[in-house]
Amino acid sequence: MTQLITWPDSGPQTVLRRTSKPIEIAAALAPLQVRYERWPVRHEVPTDSDSDTVIAAYHSEIERLNEEEGFVTVDVVSLHPSTAPDWPARARAARERFLNEHTHDDDDEVRFFVAGAGIFYLHIADEVHAMYCEKGDLLGVPKGTPHWFDMGTQPSFTAIRFFHEEDGWIGNFTGSDISSRFPDFDVFRTSFTEERAG
To answer: What domains, with CATH codes, occur in the chain?
Structure first.
Protein backbone atom coordinates (compact mmCIF):
# COMPACT_ATOMS: atom_id res chain seq x y z
CA MET A 1 0.00 0.00 0.00
CA THR A 2 1.28 3.44 -0.94
CA GLN A 3 2.37 5.46 2.07
CA LEU A 4 3.94 8.78 3.00
CA ILE A 5 5.76 9.17 6.32
CA THR A 6 7.40 12.41 7.42
CA TRP A 7 10.05 12.64 10.14
CA PRO A 8 12.29 15.46 11.39
CA ASP A 9 15.67 15.17 9.67
CA SER A 10 17.25 14.53 13.07
CA GLY A 11 15.95 10.96 12.92
CA PRO A 12 12.90 8.69 12.70
CA GLN A 13 12.03 8.68 16.40
CA THR A 14 9.13 11.10 15.88
CA VAL A 15 6.53 10.66 13.13
CA LEU A 16 5.22 14.05 11.99
CA ARG A 17 2.86 12.69 9.34
CA ARG A 18 1.69 9.29 8.16
CA THR A 19 -0.92 8.68 5.49
CA SER A 20 -1.81 6.19 2.79
CA LYS A 21 -4.61 8.29 1.28
CA PRO A 22 -3.68 9.56 -2.20
CA ILE A 23 -5.52 12.86 -1.74
CA GLU A 24 -3.68 13.55 1.52
CA ILE A 25 -0.34 12.53 0.00
CA ALA A 26 -0.80 14.86 -2.97
CA ALA A 27 -1.86 17.71 -0.66
CA ALA A 28 1.17 17.21 1.61
CA LEU A 29 3.66 17.06 -1.26
CA ALA A 30 2.25 19.85 -3.43
CA PRO A 31 3.62 22.74 -1.26
CA LEU A 32 7.05 21.10 -1.63
CA GLN A 33 6.69 21.26 -5.44
CA VAL A 34 6.66 17.44 -5.50
CA ARG A 35 4.23 15.94 -8.00
CA TYR A 36 2.18 12.93 -6.93
CA GLU A 37 -0.50 11.25 -9.03
CA ARG A 38 -2.30 7.93 -9.21
CA TRP A 39 -2.62 6.45 -12.70
CA PRO A 40 -4.85 3.51 -13.67
CA VAL A 41 -3.08 0.18 -13.27
CA ARG A 42 -3.01 -1.85 -16.48
CA HIS A 43 -3.35 -5.38 -15.12
CA GLU A 44 -2.93 -6.83 -18.60
CA VAL A 45 0.74 -5.75 -18.65
CA PRO A 46 2.85 -8.69 -17.39
CA THR A 47 5.77 -7.98 -15.07
CA ASP A 48 8.23 -9.22 -17.69
CA SER A 49 6.85 -6.99 -20.48
CA ASP A 50 9.37 -5.26 -22.72
CA SER A 51 9.68 -1.46 -22.85
CA ASP A 52 7.56 -1.06 -25.97
CA THR A 53 4.65 -2.97 -24.40
CA VAL A 54 4.81 -0.93 -21.19
CA ILE A 55 4.95 2.41 -23.01
CA ALA A 56 2.12 1.41 -25.35
CA ALA A 57 -0.08 0.43 -22.38
CA TYR A 58 0.34 3.88 -20.79
CA HIS A 59 0.47 5.87 -24.03
CA SER A 60 -2.34 8.31 -23.18
CA GLU A 61 -0.99 9.12 -19.70
CA ILE A 62 2.56 9.50 -21.06
CA GLU A 63 1.40 11.85 -23.82
CA ARG A 64 -0.53 14.00 -21.35
CA LEU A 65 2.45 14.32 -19.02
CA ASN A 66 4.83 15.03 -21.91
CA GLU A 67 2.56 17.83 -23.11
CA GLU A 68 2.35 19.33 -19.62
CA GLU A 69 6.03 19.03 -18.74
CA GLY A 70 7.91 18.98 -22.06
CA PHE A 71 9.82 15.74 -21.48
CA VAL A 72 12.08 14.72 -24.36
CA THR A 73 12.96 11.18 -23.28
CA VAL A 74 10.79 8.42 -21.85
CA ASP A 75 12.12 4.96 -21.07
CA VAL A 76 11.43 1.94 -18.90
CA VAL A 77 13.67 0.51 -16.18
CA SER A 78 12.92 -2.96 -14.86
CA LEU A 79 14.63 -4.97 -12.16
CA HIS A 80 13.16 -8.20 -10.82
CA PRO A 81 14.58 -11.22 -8.96
CA SER A 82 16.41 -13.62 -11.22
CA THR A 83 18.00 -17.04 -11.02
CA ALA A 84 20.96 -15.81 -13.09
CA PRO A 85 24.28 -16.38 -11.29
CA ASP A 86 25.13 -12.68 -11.42
CA TRP A 87 21.77 -11.56 -9.97
CA PRO A 88 22.95 -10.84 -6.38
CA ALA A 89 25.82 -8.66 -7.63
CA ARG A 90 23.61 -6.85 -10.17
CA ALA A 91 20.93 -6.20 -7.55
CA ARG A 92 23.47 -4.91 -5.03
CA ALA A 93 25.13 -2.61 -7.57
CA ALA A 94 21.79 -1.21 -8.78
CA ARG A 95 20.67 -0.51 -5.23
CA GLU A 96 23.92 1.08 -4.05
CA ARG A 97 23.91 3.58 -6.92
CA PHE A 98 20.92 5.44 -5.47
CA LEU A 99 21.22 4.86 -1.70
CA ASN A 100 23.14 8.01 -0.79
CA GLU A 101 21.64 11.48 -0.72
CA HIS A 102 22.01 13.33 -4.01
CA THR A 103 20.48 16.06 -6.15
CA HIS A 104 20.04 16.67 -9.87
CA ASP A 105 21.06 20.04 -11.31
CA ASP A 106 19.39 19.87 -14.70
CA ASP A 107 16.34 17.67 -14.42
CA ASP A 108 13.51 16.52 -12.22
CA GLU A 109 13.34 12.85 -11.24
CA VAL A 110 9.97 11.58 -12.42
CA ARG A 111 8.98 7.93 -12.10
CA PHE A 112 5.77 6.00 -12.64
CA PHE A 113 5.61 2.56 -11.01
CA VAL A 114 4.15 -0.02 -13.38
CA ALA A 115 4.91 -2.89 -11.00
CA GLY A 116 6.68 -3.53 -7.72
CA ALA A 117 7.75 -0.90 -5.20
CA GLY A 118 10.47 1.50 -4.11
CA ILE A 119 10.93 4.33 -1.61
CA PHE A 120 11.95 7.90 -2.37
CA TYR A 121 13.29 9.78 0.64
CA LEU A 122 13.02 13.54 0.17
CA HIS A 123 15.17 15.74 2.45
CA ILE A 124 13.46 19.11 2.32
CA ALA A 125 14.27 21.85 4.84
CA ASP A 126 14.42 20.10 8.23
CA GLU A 127 12.24 17.12 7.34
CA VAL A 128 12.58 13.76 5.60
CA HIS A 129 9.56 12.53 3.64
CA ALA A 130 9.61 8.79 2.87
CA MET A 131 7.34 8.08 -0.08
CA TYR A 132 6.69 4.35 -0.47
CA CYS A 133 5.55 3.98 -4.09
CA GLU A 134 3.79 0.96 -5.57
CA LYS A 135 2.19 0.23 -8.93
CA GLY A 136 -0.02 3.09 -10.04
CA ASP A 137 2.04 5.80 -8.29
CA LEU A 138 3.76 8.63 -10.14
CA LEU A 139 6.23 10.79 -8.24
CA GLY A 140 8.05 13.87 -9.55
CA VAL A 141 11.00 15.13 -7.48
CA PRO A 142 12.07 18.66 -8.53
CA LYS A 143 15.66 19.26 -9.60
CA GLY A 144 17.83 20.47 -6.78
CA THR A 145 15.90 18.50 -4.13
CA PRO A 146 18.16 16.37 -1.90
CA HIS A 147 16.87 12.80 -1.94
CA TRP A 148 17.77 9.14 -2.13
CA PHE A 149 16.02 6.01 -3.39
CA ASP A 150 15.90 2.49 -1.99
CA MET A 151 14.63 -0.58 -3.83
CA GLY A 152 15.57 -3.09 -1.13
CA THR A 153 17.95 -6.04 -1.06
CA GLN A 154 15.70 -7.98 -3.44
CA PRO A 155 14.67 -5.29 -5.97
CA SER A 156 11.43 -5.92 -7.82
CA PHE A 157 9.95 -3.07 -9.83
CA THR A 158 9.20 -1.75 -13.29
CA ALA A 159 9.06 2.02 -13.74
CA ILE A 160 8.62 4.50 -16.55
CA ARG A 161 11.18 7.31 -16.39
CA PHE A 162 10.73 10.82 -17.78
CA PHE A 163 13.57 13.21 -18.65
CA HIS A 164 13.82 16.81 -19.86
CA GLU A 165 17.46 16.18 -20.79
CA GLU A 166 18.70 13.50 -23.15
CA ASP A 167 21.62 12.72 -20.83
CA GLY A 168 19.20 11.09 -18.39
CA TRP A 169 20.15 10.42 -14.76
CA ILE A 170 23.06 12.52 -13.47
CA GLY A 171 23.39 12.63 -9.68
CA ASN A 172 25.38 15.04 -7.54
CA PHE A 173 26.07 13.36 -4.20
CA THR A 174 25.94 15.58 -1.12
CA GLY A 175 28.36 13.52 0.98
CA SER A 176 25.83 13.34 3.82
CA ASP A 177 25.28 10.10 5.73
CA ILE A 178 21.64 10.97 6.42
CA SER A 179 20.33 7.98 4.49
CA SER A 180 21.99 5.63 6.99
CA ARG A 181 19.98 7.14 9.84
CA PHE A 182 16.53 6.25 8.49
CA PRO A 183 14.77 2.90 7.97
CA ASP A 184 15.79 1.32 4.68
CA PHE A 185 13.33 -0.30 2.26
CA ASP A 186 13.40 -3.72 3.93
CA VAL A 187 12.89 -2.36 7.45
CA PHE A 188 10.21 0.09 6.30
CA ARG A 189 8.30 -2.58 4.39
CA THR A 190 8.50 -5.15 7.20
CA SER A 191 7.37 -2.63 9.83
CA PHE A 192 4.52 -1.41 7.65
CA THR A 193 3.37 -4.96 6.86
CA GLU A 194 3.42 -5.91 10.53
CA GLU A 195 1.42 -2.83 11.54
CA ARG A 196 -1.12 -3.41 8.76
CA ALA A 197 -1.51 -7.07 9.72
CA GLY A 198 -2.02 -6.09 13.36
So the answer is: 3-197 (2.60.120.10)
